[in-house]
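**User:** You know discrete backbone vocabularies at least as well as I do. Would you mind producing a protein record, from residues through to fold? Write it directly below this note and I will take it from there.

**Assistant:**
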Amino acid sequence: MKQLVVSVVVCVVVQYVTAIRYHNETRLSPVNRQLSEFLDEHPKPIGVYTRLTGDPLDIRDTVTLNTNIFDNKNLFLETSHLVRERIPERVVHAKGYGAFGYFEVTHDVSQYTKADVFNGIGKKTPLVGRFSTAIENLGGSDLLRETRALALKMYTKEGNLDFLCLHLPIFLYNEPLDFTRFLHTMKRNPRTNLFDSTQRWDFFTLKPQFLHTILWLQSDFGLPAGYRKMDIFPLHVYEIYNKHGDRYFVKFNFRTTIGLANLTDAQAAALNLESPDYFNIDLYNAIAEKNYPSWRLEMDILTKEDLKKVDYDPFDLTRLWKRGTYRTVTIGRIVFNDNVDNTFKDIEQLALNPDNLVPGILGPHDEVFKSRRIFYPDAQNYRLGGNHHNIQVNAPLYDKTYNRDGVPPVKDNMKYAPNYYPNSFHGPMPYVDEARPTEMLKVLHSNAIDLQPLNEFYNEIVDTDAHRQRIADHLAESLVNVPTGLQKRAIYILTLIDIGLGRRVKNALQVSKNVDRVARRNQIAECIANVDEASKRPRHKLQKIMFYNHGRN
């Protein structure tokens, strides 16, 4: 009887504890429930712990104390793997998160392209995408004012189709050599190891075309409220063709279906205090809660005849196409509905190349694309190895090549098929795309600096004086610690863009210079000293206080 009572009590306690755990953990966000959900899915251990060589690990070999350390094979295997488990960090777009999903055709665009992936209303194609910040390293914050990206790989029946996109509709440069030069200005000063506004403004004033993107970033568009709430642009002008060989020149655009939303500096600062990984958390939770993020895929179209009529270079990545010179059609939508199982396997090893195209879509004609098609594979060969295309997340649905051997993975290594081309023994044979255009388009770009697109952004896309003032304030803030001569040069260039912009930045900079630096440092110190006290307040009250004070200032 006593044993029965004990059993009943134990059962009740277990049920009670389980109920409490379930109640508490359902209140957590999906990010914080991940390990508990794994436990629910696997009520028992998923298998026997083995060494890297596959042999079962005896529990006595999980410790080395009071043993002959050199007899513990597992110590060497695990530790040597640990020191090799990192691969080189991406030079740009190091920090990111991704997910799996699909592309669905919603409109008939067969008159423009023969690409199978874009034809057949209702057709779905699996894909993987990687969202990222551009400049931050792996441990950086999501909430700084910089470009965001989506790198997208569609696994089509005709090969992988990759799009490398930014959240702004223009690119920084159109001269490929400027990439490394610009990137070095965004990295840390080689002596101080600090980010340096002086080197950035020195470069921007010597290369004013970069200021178009800088204006976008310092505007309200520069800080989206999460990856789900931003539009995404592949930027290049792609040449596409239909089954009759008719050619069109298009810009693809991914428009968020949830609606555009941006953060103020105060909101970003408040969120950054709570979680610098806000963008990643928001994306993961949305997918886990089945609020699947999606984007509508459109394309802006110019014909060959249109190219002869426009009064601007449509292949210039640093400017927008003028309204009224093109037409827009909808193709379909992308949806992300599945978080990855393992970030390293599916996202860190993900290799994307804008030159991964399919029949019906030809490579862009600008010089930046031509350089990217060379150096993206080179970067991936360095970071992931010469057979990175065989890694599961990068592998196409079908491939037959004459590439063999090298560092794993090699898949089936083409088994015993002939290893040279051409051959007479039925190895893989090329096909003929009879619809592919044969006429070559030659594009000549101007080296002149054109500030008109920057003026149009400031005066037309930015539609309120309050918004213009915020841009000026952000620019002035970045100029505060820059030498006086460089400040004058920057204001001169900004005045050439728009007289009002130059005047606003000059005035804002003067106000900033007159701020008592000692008093400002004392205020910051006081804020830091009061962090502990503020952290004890309810979160919603703290946020209200922060936003209220920001509004008053």
